[in-house]
Amino acid sequence: MCPTPEELGARNRRLAHEGVSAAEKLLVERYGLSDAGEGFELLKAASQQSNVKLHTLADAVLRVPAPDHGAEVWFPGRRRYSPPRLPGLMLEPGSCGSQGAVLKAALHRVLSITQTPMGNVQLRDGSRLHLARHTGLNRYFTDFFAFVEGPTTLCAQAAAERRQVTVRDVARADVFDEASRYAILQTGSRAAHSVPLTTGRGTVVGMVSSHHERPLTGFSTAQLQALQQTGTDVGRWLSWHWNTVVLDALERLHATATRPPH
């Protein structure tokens, strides 16, 4: 059965809360905080000051090895790098360090290549893909695919296989379960193409997918090469963002948590 909008809303709230709640508990234990509320305030302050999404920062708290006990800094001796170039993306001057601006430009680039107004960007969030950007897709679709965990979607297949995957006809493709198929068809998409965002080491850190109102016959070699280059460029930028901006936010959080009381 296909989940109702109410069921999807409840699921998304639960999944969004899980990571933040786990990070709050870890911070209480690590820094001897009074309660989870104090852990949340730490996360929120560092998130706002660093322009990093709260759920991204919570995921980093859970995934990154803890600082040494009593250390003043979390990452001593960490080397810093400038953001990698994104030659194929149309970015406003001064926005090359903004994840939101880069994801917006990446989606625009992919949809320009594939010639469709519908698409979305997902980022790796622990073991899930989390919807980060979308255009031309309705509320049921974006709620249904807000979090992707199972293998019965195009984006999950492309991520697992670390390659571009085309579904020429959503109605007939074996990759989808019926709930996923319905969520795609009801938004007006009859075909889709997913491009993995990969780091220099080939790790998939996200996905960009285009959706098409008619079944596809495929893409040209030039189109596939341009999509591949976009996936590589954006994946490397996201790796830089994690290792620079997100780790800076963790460092800021650690400094706040260990600051002597006035």
TrEMBL record:
UniProt keywords, alphabetically: Transcription, Transcription regulation
InterPro entries registered for this protein in UniProt: ANTAR, GAF, GAF-like_dom_sf, WH-like_DNA-bd_sf
Source taxon at top rank: Bacteria
Name this protein carries in UniProt: GAF and ANTAR domain-containing protein
UniProt keyword Transcription regulation, yes or no: yes
A Pfam family it matches: GAF_2
UniProt domain ANTAR: residue ranges: 6-62
Organism: Streptomyces plicatus
